[in-house]
Amino acid sequence: MDSDEKRKILEVLKEKKIMIKRVTLKDTDIIKEIIELERKIFNGKGNINFWLLKAFVRYGVVYILSKDEKIIAVTEYMQVLNEKELFLYGCFTVEEHRKKGYGKILLEYGELEMEKMGINTISLTVDPENKLALKLYEKLGYEKTAFLKDEYGAGVDREQLKKTIKMKK
Fold first, then answer.
1. What pLDDT score was predicted for residue 32?
2. Which residue intervals of 27-148 are DSSP H helices?
3. Is residue 127's pLDDT more than 90?
4. Residues ≥6 apart with Cβ < 8 Å to 133
5. Is 162 helix (H, G, I), strand (E, B) or coil?
6. Which is the CATH superfamily of the domain at 3-124?
7. Is the pTM here over 0.85, yes or no?
8. Strand 85-93 vs strand 121-126: parallel, antiparallel, or unpaired?
């Protein structure tokens, strides 16, 4: 991502009065709110619990995008062992804020931060029926790399996607 793209993201954040925060272990209330939002959004299918989310915060990276002190979008990353790659475990936007560009902004912000950390690849899996998410990821430059049949049990398939982050020269 070049400096013009970075500048555009930061301008949008300022213009829309949006805050992006990396969640820390001290953010217990935020962690609990993320868990409750995931429970509602994912209906018990793939949502995260307190123990797991704390591990993501401690050993991975979790970002929230908020406006007026309300969480709008969340991303949860974990590092791929011995690689300069992160796996995007979770990404969601609260339903009433979808299709407004908030997920895109948070994902782009994450890429900027990952670039600073020396990460060069981000991978993820997504439900092949989640056309809205697939469209967003493809728009951001993610490419399908595999179809994972029964990845999370019988009939729970996933598309695997990857993106190489353009490192600064």
1. 93
2. 28-42, 50-59, 102-116, 131-139
3. yes
4. 91, 126, 127
5. strand
6. Gcn5-related N-acetyltransferase (GNAT) (3.40.630.30)
7. yes
8. parallel
